Amino acid sequence: MCLNISVSSLLPSSFNQELTFTSQAPFAVWDHLHNKSCEEASILMAYAWARGLALNPAFSDVELKKIADWEIAKFGFFESTMAEQTAQVAREFYGLKVDLLENPIVKQIKKELVSGNLVVMGMVGRWLGNPHFKAPGPIYHMLVIKGYDENGFFTNDPGTLYGKNYYYSYATIMKAAHDWTGVDEEIYTFSAAALIISK
After folding, report:
1. Does a structural domain hold residue 18?
2. What does the alpha-carbon distance between residue 25 and residue 41 come to, in Å, rounded to a whole number?
3. Within a 10 A sphere around the Cβ of 139, how many other Cβ atoms?
4. What CATH number is attached to the domain comprising 133?
5. Does residue 167 have a pLDDT over 60?
6. CB–CB of 161/175 below 8 Å?
7. Integer Cα distance of 33 and 124 in angstroms
8. Element (H, E) at 122
9. Ranges for the Peptidase C39-like domain (predicted)?
């Protein structure tokens, strides 16, 4: 007998992974480096998860600077790396397993999470509506999606010291999800891309 069961019907109604957290400004020093380190912090959290490490502010701050230095040597800059560049950092700097998923939908993200992966995505930061961001919020931002329930995603959002397990609705994440092109105005209409990181 052949059962026609959709993948989505097999997914649990809620799922959340434990993920160590760092802010992109571990000591709350919001200088240029730390204001622009959301991608680096997201990759650092994924690295710690993949290697079974616990992050602390001192270690995280050193690592963020190391990643930025590597990016400057590789790309000529560290600020605002697009999805493909961020994936390159994850692979080459930390040796992580990374796939890119273009224009993911909610069910695809949930499926990746239940499969034991993390999802790292670029966002229009100003559309996230996070009250902990300095107004009006960053144009481009990146965070880690780690779980979900019936109404939204659990994230580790490095843009605030209060970002561990930070909750956003599905509508908020899917509206804000856009990859970076290097031009501020283009992010509002450019397609989304997710980094799927596995152990």
Report:
1. no
2. 9
3. 16
4. 3.90.70.10
5. yes
6. no
7. 19
8. strand 118-124
9. 31-158
Q: How far apart are CA 154 and CA 57, in angstroms?
A: 22
Residue 160 is part of which domain span? 23-198
pLDDT in tens, 174-194: 999 999 998 888 898 889 999
- What does pLDDT average to over the chain? 95
Give the DSSP per-residue string, 135-187.
TT--SEEEEEEEEE-SSEEEEE-TTSTT-TTEEEEHHHHHHHB----S-GGGG
Q: Which two tokens stand for residue 153?
A: 């995603």
State what percent of residues in the chain have pLDDT above 70.
95
Structural tokens at position 15: 């799922």
Q: Please say whether the dihedral angle defined by the alpha carbons of residues 89, 82, 117 and 130, taken in this order, is positive or negative.
A: positive
Total number of domains constituting the chain: 1
